[in-house]
Design brief:
about 180 residues, Endonuclease I-creI, four-stranded antiparallel β-sheet, Homing endonuclease LAGLIDADG domain-containing protein, LAGLIDADG_dom, Homing_endonucl, endonuclease activity
């Protein structure tokens, strides 16, 4: 297995844009969905290098996105362990993976935002930001029956945070390593 940084990064991405399932009929599954084909292929290669299991990559026509899937119990169990480990020790790799999955940059307002509906993930990211002395605001948004939380970081604080995080998604203007 490769380094702890890659394992924590993958755990962050899975917590943000992925799912780990166990169903009696279909077995074990790890799934990540993203609109960027190159990024999904990068994640497939990274998972293969880190865990020794190569996931399948396919276009999801219903969501206009790309989907990475693996049906191996060993990968399911290891990623579940890595997610628990990442929750207990959030760092720039975990939070970078989360921002790659659920974050966005508004260059006009120079605002970095992160959205998620899970309170524990919002608390995890907020605690990390506080530990880095990054000023941020947290609020809840609602639209109809749906609600989610937003963390916003503005201007120089946002630029400082982007330099701290392990960001690998092409949307940030960086090429994956």
């Amino acid at each position: 297995m490769r380094g702890a940084a890659d394992r924590k990064y993958i755990a962050g991405v899975v917590m943000g844009d992925g799912m780990v399932y166990h169903r009696a009929k279909t077995g074990y599954e790890v799934k990540i969905t993203d609109k960027n084909e190159a990024y999904i292929k990068y994640l497939a290669d990274l998972i293969s290098a880190v865990y020794g299991i190569t996931p399948r990559v396919a276009k999801d026509p219903l969501r206009n996105a790309w989907r990475l899937r693996a049906f191996k119990k060993a990968l399911y169990l290891q990623i579940k362990r890595d997610i628990e480990w990442a929750k207990g020790e959030p760092d720039s790799h975990v939070v970078g993976g989360l921002y790659d999955a659920e974050g966005y940059w508004n260059p006009k307002k120079r605002k970095l935002a992160f959205t998620n509906k899970e309170v524990f993930i919002i608390k995890l990211v907020s605690q990390f930001l506080s530990g880095q002395n990054i000023s941020h605001s947290v609020y809840q948004r609602k639209k109809g029956q749906y609600s989610w939380y937003v963390i916003e970081v503005h201007k120089q604080q946002a630029l400082r945070l982007m330099s701290i995080l392990d960001l690998r998604h092409p949307k940030w203007g960086v090429a994956p390593p």
